[in-house]
Design a protein that fits this description.
Aldehyde Dehydrogenase, Chain A, domain 1; Aldehyde Dehydrogenase, Chain A, domain 2; 2 domains; 7-stranded mixed sheet; 6-stranded mixed sheet; globular; binds nicotinamide-adenine-dinucleotide; Ald_DH_C; Ald_DH/histidinol_DH
């Protein structure tokens, strides 16, 4: 048996994980600092406190989520009582990226355990310190047959993908997402793919510019822009673009000082390869702010670009770093033309006081999720499903949805024996007209 039916046992496992994360919080903060100088504040908000909150919420609700849920029966089956049973999938594989290296292992792990699965996690090889502490927490907390942490890089991930799983939960790039989907298809294994994209941030003319700039700067430069839901590029109405840029510069300076390299609140790029990739995106572009780099420390300052060409390297793919292109638009047709050039993004942000305009944008474009008058924060509400659409992913999680993601939802009708309406049984002669009417009444 590779799943755990005993809810009490599952709850105990989550409690043990909660205590382990609490015990190791300082070591986790240090590991993330050692990996890419992630500021302690950001680590607490986006990694440890986030994980602890997810654990508490799941522990509180596990009995409710795990028990069979009753639903209204169909009159056609009268008399019956109908249920959705939550069946663990069995053996689950979780593969995680490096950018939120603790949380993106822990959050799906919590749900997979709550749902009663046996789990193998593969953290990213690009954050060795964080991956080590994850491995330590897991080996100290769980029996290897229940949860195992496998450390390694691409080859290790490929070896794991070659095995047969009952569910695969992958967070990472769309390119690797395709590899994962192909491997899963081999055994018809269900998958969740949490991927990335090029997230537009529309700033309408009718807007509180100072506040918009503050919220964009926070969402873009947290984690040094290495966030799947960070605004990738700004589409500013041409009438406010220059003023918006002035506010953006003010807010960057307010947050990180005149020299962000000396700020304790600004993280580094994950490695030399990504640093080089980002620096090369600046070639032939108009840098209106920032653009300072120190390859020795994988540092790239918060950078604003003015009107890059839509087919330039910086606009072709997800930036995933502290570079923010500012483009202008005049009409909604411009927005459609520019946003339509790219695959469906993971997020889209709209800054506007005009609620009709915001509503129109929400309905006009297809994207994973987003905010009106803010960035990134939709991630934090566990009552909202989090996931992409199209190339930015498939499936969603967070809160109860995470539990359901790792459960097969098994419908069961329990029929009573005290009555057996004979109508459905053959011979059918003379019943056709009546059954059509009955089906219509109850549809
Ligand atoms: P990545 O796809 O390169 O790697 C993710 C994981 O896949 C790692 O554990 C890695 O070892 C493994 N991997 C890499 N190449 C592989 C291969 N050929 N075969 C099998 N496994 C392989 O992603 P990354 O660089 O770690 O993370 C950045 C990407 O993740 C960005 O695109 C970002 O938008 C996305 N992301 C999405 C979310 C989300 O919730 N939707 C969250 C964070 C990051």
């Amino acid at each position: 048996m590779n799943f755990i039916s005993d809810i009490h046992f599952r709850k105990q496992a989550l409690l043990k994980l909660l205590h382990a994360v609490q015990m190791h919080e300082e070591a986790i903060i240090k590991a993330l600092y050692d990996d890419f100088k992630k500021p302690a504040f950001e680590t607490v908000v986006t990694e440890t406190a986030y994980t602890l909150a997810e654990l508490s919420h799941t522990i509180k609700n596990i009995h409710k989520w795990a028990k069979p849920q009753t639903v209204l029966p169909s009159f056609l089956n009268f008399p019956s009582t109908d249920y959705i049973y939550k069946e663990p999938y069995g053996k689950v594989l979780i593969i995680a990226p490096w950018n939120y290296p603790f949380q993106l292992v822990m959050s799906p792990l919590i749900a997979a355990l709550a749902a009663g699965n046996q789990v193998v996690v593969k953290p990213s090889e690009l954050t060795p310190n964080t991956s080590q502490i994850i491995a330590k927490i897991i080996s100290e907390t769980f029996d290897k047959n229940h949860v195992e942490c496998v450390l390694g890089g691409v080859e290790t991930a490929q070896q794991l993908l070659a095995q047969r799983w009952n569910y695969i939960f992958f967070t990472g790039s769309p390119a690797v997402g395709k590899i994962v989907a192909q491997a899963a298809a081999e055994n018809l294994t269900p998958v969740t793919l949490e991927l990335g994209g090029k997230n537009p941030c529309i700033v309408d003319e009718n807007v509180n510019l100072k506040l918009a700039a503050k919220r964009i700067v926070w969402g873009k430069f947290i984690n040094a822009g290495q966030t799947c839901i960070a605004p990738d590029y700004i589409l500013a109405h041409q009438s406010i673009k220059s003023e918006l840029i002035r506010f953006l510069i003010d807010e960057i300076t307010l947050a990180y000082g005149d020299n962000p390299e000396a700020s304790p609140d600004f993280a580094r790029i994950i490695n030399a390869k990504n640093h080089q990739r980002l620096v090369s995106l600046l070639e032939n572009e108009t840098v209106i702010f920032g653009g300072k780099s120190n390859p020795e420390d994988c540092y790239l300052s918060p950078t604003l670009l003015d009107e890059p060409n839509l087919d330039s390297p910086v606009m072709r793919g997800e930036i995933f770093g502290p570079i923010l292109p500012v483009l202008s638009y005049e009409t909604e047709t411009d927005l459609e033309r520019i946003i339509g050039l790219y695959e469906k993004p993971l997020s889209l942000y709209i800054f506007s006081k005009n609620s009709q305009f915001a509503e129109k944008m929400i309905r006009r474009f297809s994207f994973g999720g987003g905010c009106v008058n803010d960035t990134v924060i939709h991630f934090a509400n566990k009552r909202l499903p989090f996931g992409g659409v199209g190339q930015s992913g498939m499936g969603a999680y967070h809160g109860k949805r995470s539990f359901d993601t790792f459960s097969h939802l098994k419908p069961i009708v329990k029929k009573a024996n005290w009555l057996d309406i004979p109508f459905r049984y053959a011979p059918y002669q003379g019943k056709l007209l009546l059954i059509k009417k009955i089906m219509k009444w109850f549809s």
